[in-house]
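Re: your question about Glutamate-ammonia-ligase adenylyltransferase

S., sorry for the slow reply, the queue was backed up all week. Below is exactly what I fed in.
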Amino acid sequence: MRITERMNFSDRITRVPHPFAQDHADEALARYPDVTGDVAGLIAGAAGCSPYLRQLMQSEADWLPSALEAPEEEMANLMNGLRAHEGDPGAALRRAKRRAALLIGLADLGGVWPLAQVTQALSDLADLACDIALRHAIAQELRRGKLPGMTEADLDTCGGMTVLAMGKMGAGELNYSSDIDLICLYDETRFDGDDQHEARAAFVRATRRMAQMLSENTAEGYVFRTDLRLRPDPGVTPVCMSMAAAEAYYESLGRTWERAAYIKARPSAGDLEAGAQFLKTLTPFVWRRHLDFAAIEDAHNMRLRIRAHKGLGADLGGPLDLMGHNMKLGRGGIREIEFFTQTRQLIAGGRDPSLRMRGTLEGLKGLAEKEWVPAKVAEDLADHYRFHREVEHRLQMLRDQQTHDLPTTDEEFGRLAAFMGRDAEGLKDELLSRLCDVDGVIERFFKPEGGAGEDAAREAEQGTWLDPKVIARWPGYPALRSDRAVQIFRRLRPDILTRLSRTSHPEEALLAFDGFLAGLPAGVQVFSLFESNPQLIELLVDIVGTAPALAAYLSRNAAVFDAVIAGDFFAPWPGLAALRADIAARLAREADYEARLIALRSWRREWHFRIGVHHLRGLVDAATSARHYADLAEAVLGALWPEVVAQFAAKHGPPPGRGAAVMGMGSLGTRALNAASDLDLIVIYDADGAEGSDGRRPLAVQPYYARLTQAMISGLTAQMTGGRLYEVDMRLRPSGNQGPVAVSLAAFRSYQQNEAWGWEHLALTRARAVAGEADLGAEIQAFRADLIAEVAARPNAESRLAQEVIDMRARIAAAKPPEGPLDPKLGPGRLQDVQLIAQAAVLVSGRAVTGARAGVSAGIAAGRALGWWDEAGASALSRAAAICRDVQMTARLLGDGPLDPETLGAGARAFVLREAGCTDIADLVATLSSRAEAAAQVIDAALGRAGTGEAKP
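Result:
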């Protein structure tokens, strides 16, 4: 039956080459007399343009017609035939390569297979060829007894040797006539120390035999040209090296181009599991935890070195000349698109594993979806990449040469155009347009525009505000000790100084920036980040002009800038549930407990910074940022507690009984934290009849939960990479510092009902469960509600509690006087005083609510019956609490202590006044004082009446 009657291959043809040499086309058709229609046109065009395909069609005339009936099935038959072959596979591999090259070439030329299917078919064949050649070589070493301790059974894993496919082969993007880049490694742990030398020698011999079998060009052709030079330090290392040696090299000496190369790395032959494990160990080397914008300059320098090495230096500027232009390495070429994609992947892939795809087209798509690349840019580059690769394949199909150069004569350009079914001038126009488009995109990426104009920069440099003594200090800072950092900063400096000159008080902003620069331990990564993202310079200038303390924090934690450009930094607050999901996904990517603690610190640091920036820029007010800080702390505790429990249980067994609940007290309990808050916590457990744990090292119940709590405290407070999570205060637990750090539910109930002081009942009004066993937490909260109702019902509860509050106010006043007129916390009618009376109102009302606002409302309800305050009094308390809260939230964001009107910078002053709604510092002092005085009068009157039992008139 004729091929055309199969209605398969021929119906899928979408294009055909034009014969460049008609006599060669006629000769080919004479060999295939039964071929008609588009298939005949395809064979004629291929043979009339490509001497290589013409030769293959001559040698495979008996095989090709049936192969074209079902090309996918025939490729599978070729692969299965190789797998089933016995004996020396050399001749079978070369025959399979010839036939695959012909079949894939015709499917490509006819548009029957898209580019991705073409390159994947070539890559699959290369994988199988490597595996067959390697196994044949390893089998010889096993038969000779040259792999100590190994037997024929170890041939399945090639004795622990793996072949990593690199470059286009690793990505499944192999060229039509490509070299294959391989790195050969072996697992040294499978051999005793004394056998290491002999094993390595055997693997080296096997590697050389494999490479020779694949590369040797005989009368039957060759399989694949093999390049082993991507291995570590190829000038001095053997062609197959141990995984441990390779890992040590990358950890200490690995360069950016090697990181980029490993984006596409894939185990392709031998022990695939060992290869996959090796790649997993290299994850920290390839994918940095921070956003690595320094990779941009490394990639740019690599581009320049490649061009210089290949003699393409003249191609850097001026009009682009198509004649002899290198489609891979030249301007606007394939490598440019790959560099663009891989560099962006290196920048972001450490934070986002979804960007760790091997393929260039997949990488562009993923980067666009995550908004690292504009969608239109990604689409255009992907389209150009497909076109470039098809041109590359046509160049290589012509004579089976590993070439990327466009023709140097009009005649050969005519041949290429005919091979692509095009006219020469139209092809040239499209090539030039596409190459220039890619060149424009890539150059903008590696040399981004922006920054200060020359005139503005000169004006900034010469401004009278610029203190030369400050500038003179900069070269001695750690961040500017490397030549590379100095070069990048020199480019940034005009833009930075211009932006500083435009602040309301540039002298103050310069000093704050100087503090930021002085605290940076290193500069390359941060400066590279700024150069690629000028909006970060604007944000930094905002911060140094407003909150120097936050700028100093940034210098120690510059990695938080990653969050600004890695996601929806300025989007609305996602809420506690979204935070929990986000941190769960982040921790799931970490391999061990310590790594999770470090990741948790990094995550918390970024969100904490985000809350501060949103507050600083007026995106949220003080009350809202207080809730956000509390959400963040609760998410951290909710993520940390199960990690601590799992780590502790691995040694001592699971928690006995019902487990434990972590109760948040104080500001955490009322969801009102600030930027510098510590965490007031109580841990309550319920052994539920259990006497101890069941583990490798069992513990009795009390020491189990005490040590588990200490482990949690350590997890929060330990100084690790990324600093601490939070400082922790456990003094609100029963019996304070004298009591155990974890208390049983029964003991907690008994203590609160029979022994607790009044201040402890007041503190309990602000408690809520924040982590641990949810059922137990709910039970504790129910007990809390019952206890508050019980305390309110006790005889003389109001007068006794009033006296307790009076005594506490006196002790606080004696021990902690206010720190200046802008102290929002201490003093009559200020924040602590209002919170204290609000807690008392909750206890007296018997209503289990939390927070100052709820307590003030409870006081009104109580007052209707007992005489505390009316609506006017409640308003006075609320107004005092609000301004005190606003001032405290801004003060904690700006520094460690209360605000000092004498030293407050202009930017910080404007921030505080905006939040407090005041016109100047004098107005703020007067407003804070008058509202506190009004609140103090309400509190004094309420306590006086409550203490005497006097009813409200």
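The longest helix spans residues 622-652. Strands lie at 161-165, 180-186, 226-227, 240-242, 266-270, 659-665, 679-686, 728-729, 742-744, 768-772.

Happy to talk it through on Thursday.
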